[in-house]
Amino acid sequence: MGGGLLVGPALQDEAARFGLPADAPLALLVAGSWGVGPVRQVASELRACDAAVPVVVCGRNEALAAQLRADGIEHAYGWVDDMPALMHAADVLVQNAGGLSSLEAFAVGLPVASYRCIPGHGLTNAAALDEAGAAVWIRDPDRLEDVLRDLIDGPQGPRRRTAGLALFAAGPDGGPAAEIARVRRAGPAPLPPRPAARRRGSAPRRLVATVAVACGLWACAVGTGIAAAHDGPDVIHAIGHSLDLDDDRPDPTPAQEGHHS
């Protein structure tokens, strides 16, 4: 598939397992377990640019998966239990939040692109991952096709794969896994004075690990607060309502304000 890192029968088996074409590059689009953000718009843009076949994972948002299939996006899934296998079948990951899916992609050597990120932590994480050299932040929609082709078949793909895999290389600081455990135990450490020379590779790994922890803590806090006020499917609707940038409904009138579900 395209110029991906891994080719051959093993990847063809993974593609067949998910009903995916084995003879075309695949762009795996993720939007977290809630399926939030302008997912339908991005899926449509991916299909239109023709750089790769869009494969969309909507998490618990089965309604979004159904909408995508109605839009003509053939490969739209709800919750996927084996994301590593699906990532092995893909050629590039397109994400909008910079959370744990990005770390999973780095671990399997899948190039990552941040695109149309959700407000708040999505934009912050996109900037951090771009600065660390771990993921490409596509700010201009006109650049979508060129960047995806470069990640799939061009020189940028191997560079990003190497940078992502390096995040999980063992080092003096124990790597991201040890950093995540440390932050969970004690919280982020105070910033030290800027040294005269930095150890190469350590700062990017620490940066991405801290981004992942921050994203996880944000998700837990929001989910806990909303779950206390909503039940069942209402939780997903309440969480995703303000972040559903595909929603074309007009802004509420003054009489409607304060009554959002």
Low-confidence stretches: 1-7, 220-242, 248-261
Radius of gyration: 19 Å
Major sheet attributes:
6 strands, parallel
> Kindly state the mean pLDDT as a whole number?
76
Summed up, the helix count is 11
DSSP, total strands:
6
Q: What is the succession of H and E elements? A: HEHEHEHEHEHEHHHHH
What share of residues is helical? 40-55%
The N- and C-terminal alpha carbons lie at a distance of 43 Å
Order of strands side by side in the largest beta sheet?
3-2-1-4-5-6
Shape: globular
* Strand residue percentage: 5-15%
Helix/strand/pairing category: alpha/beta
Walk me through the structure.
- With 261 residues, the protein is α/β, with parallel strands linked by helices.
- It is 48% helix and 9% strand.
- It is built from eleven helices and six strands.
- It has helices at residues 9-17, 39-49, 62-70, 83-89, 100-108, 121-131, 144-153, 156-166, 175-186, 202-227, 233-241; strands at 26-30, 53-57, 75-77, 92-95, 112-115, 136-138.
- Strands 3-2-1-4-5-6 form a six-stranded parallel beta sheet, sandwiched between helices.
- Helix 6 (121-131) links the parallel strand 5 (112-115) and strand 6 (136-138).
- The longest helix is centred in the C-terminal third of the chain and has 26 residues, at 202-227.
- The termini are far apart.
- The model is unreliable at 1-7, 220-242 and 248-261 (pLDDT under 50).
